[in-house]
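Page 47, continued from p. 46.
Same chain as before, 862 aa.
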Amino acid sequence: MTTGPFDPADPRFLADPYPTFARLRARGPVHWHEGLGMFVAVSHRAADVVLRDRALGRLWRDKEPAELYPAFNLLHRRSILESEPPTHTRLRRLVAGAFGRGHVERMRPWISELADSLVTQFAERARVDGSADLLALVAEPLPVEVIAQLLGVPAADRANLRPWSNAIVKMYEYGLPLEGRVEAETAARLFVAYLRSLVADRLAAPREEDLVTDLVVAASGADRLTEDEIVGTCVLLLMAGHEATVNVIGNGMLAMLRNPGQWRRMVDDADLVIPAAEEMIRYDSSLQIFERTATRPVEVFGTRVDAGQKIAALLGAANRDPEAFDEPDRFDIGRTPNPHVGFGAGIHFCLGAPLARVEVQAVLAALRRRLPRARLAAEPTRRPEFVIRGLTGLQVSDGRDGSAPRHRRGLRDDATRRGGEPGGPDPGSSMATMTEPFAAVDVIRRKRDGGELGDEQIDWVVDAYTRGAVAEEQMAALAMAILLNGMTRREISRWTAAMIATGERLDFSDLGRPTADKHSTGGVGDKITLPLAPLVAAHGVAVPQLSGRGLGHTGGTLDKLESIPGWRASLSTEEMTAQLRDVGAVVCAAGGGLAPADRKLYALRDVTATVESIPLIASSIMSKKIAEGTGALVLDVKVGSGAFMRTADAARDLARTMVDLGTDAGVRTVALLTDMSTPLGLTAGNALEVRESLDVLAGGGPPDVVELTLALAREMLAAAGRDGADPADALADGRAMDTWRRMITAQGGDPDGPLPVARETHAVLAPADGVLVRLDALAVGTAAWRLGAGRSRKEDPVQAAAGVELHAKPGAKVRGGEPLLTLHTDTPERFEAALRDLRGGVEIAPEGSRPAPGPLVLDRIA
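Result:
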């Protein structure tokens, strides 16, 4: 079939169709393909029009000669895929509940357990044999088991489903040889006969929560499904649910393993599982083409399509369109946004998309746990088909040295944490338990009207939102109701506990020493964690400090430490536990398993003007800190221009709420309110602040940094039962510095390694003699961010050497023409914006002025 811009039977084209698609896109969005007898849309925008325009429909025409393919034609003649409203609407409505996001999310625990079991068996086979076929052992059996469970197919009959599906879908290919068409018709005939017997069984003995039973019941109700419609619907659901998942996993894992850096990214960061699944769907589309027929004349990007003519969306081409995707030929598991059309669009958007997504995510999550060193063992062979793009197999090795998979330590069992059974529903049990106990709108209304939410309502809404059963707009409405009407202490405490229950909870009770942690609400020059963690650990208290990165004008502890040569932020739970036992202190990135509900809700609050809600701020912070497993917690709640809380009253309210939450959770918690109207210390940056922290550990350093470090250390030691110790002694005698060096070394860093130095500096001179009376923290923090020390988006890089160095603090005398600040950056073009941010942030009064010095620690709340 060469009469057209591409030959769908050409092995060279099938091996990599995307260069051909790129050449077609360069010539225009829509082309005529004589061999296929239809137009093809190759751009993302044109494909979207083809998929959504209601003048373009799915109009079934029997496969000819019809007498040779009676079973195949029967399956499609009035199926969801090949019909338009009102038939399409009626059929889709009857099965939408079983494939809707909420119902699928309720299946997620069981699907995850099934995926983990299959991957575990696959890993063992790969360990014994050197490699194993990921498609045959994981990608193919998983979706068949899931769809068979939904349909209610007995376990003994499930082995037939896979070969039937594989044979039938080949009929969709162009130019399929007679042998393949006969095989497809034979499979269709056997499948039809089997389903008719299954329908008869359900008529005689209906089952609860069985999709075939549901369709049989509908056959006698108002919707009056025919037996042929039931059979056709079931076959379509099997093929859609099976083929999409198998080929997304096969094509996607091939791309992943050909890009080992992307695989390592996902292994290191569980948060990337979901975007990785979406990138796998986009990058090498399992469904390459989707046909529509014009029901009336329509124009698609300047091309007229007459009534009765066909036009197809080339989904693979659309998903590589540079107008829709940056660097579309690059496989990037962190890609966002990712508006792919891998599952189509419009009324024929893939019914099984939510299920396929959960299945792919479950497999990726299991693979990253069980085979973190997975490698491609051999180049696979592609199936010789175009419409449904896939592989015949995918040989993968586990990359291990023969050791068995290790289980994570330091985690409480999920079943113990939730008070239920581990995993999900028994695959053979009734799915009646999967119904939702509440309606989101009732929960929203109760809080909107000023009422208190019950414990069960809170547990459900947090869990359901995390699972996807509560929509984003519904949680946005609830968040606004909470902002406006607040929450009682009981409600906030229960909300926090529910957020913790959506993920892991670390447990360090077997360390043999008390644990204490510190959390700061963020500020400018806030490097306190760096000297504080080793200082407290030097007194025999373990400090499990899970930290974050900077965003905007506030710096991030991990960014600072990553300026040390070789230091790494990502540790496994086993590594973290070992370091706490051997060194006593660890500062590292939080794993993706801690309070996943908070990640979703935090992003939602950011775009719905509900960030300021005290109950939601407090529960966000404390859910992660409590899940961290510490026995004691000291909160440093900043107040002032450089802090999130600008007034003492607001900071006090937040501090009191967080202390109550910690106390309710059994964590000894105290809060200090500290001033952030002026930067802490004499530096704001990354490497700059590490240098200053080393000065503190060596017994020197700026007085305010030393004061706050010691104040927080005393609180942590007292909360951990070591209130008789004076932390100043460990700074003076070198014990804190010794612990610092061991802590850095344990995480791969070189404590003696040179810290980065900026290539360019710029001195900001005092305009006149006088007394510095104001140095605004926000102005300095924003300038440091402009210079490259911070980021606007979480994925942005930072400059390790960038920042602001202060030569004076408020109250100091300054001389005109002498340096007041020094700006550091590797990119001098940033100086102009930083200087602009500093305007108005510095105030110098005449000599003799004496600004009233305020206390650094403003209040203590326990």
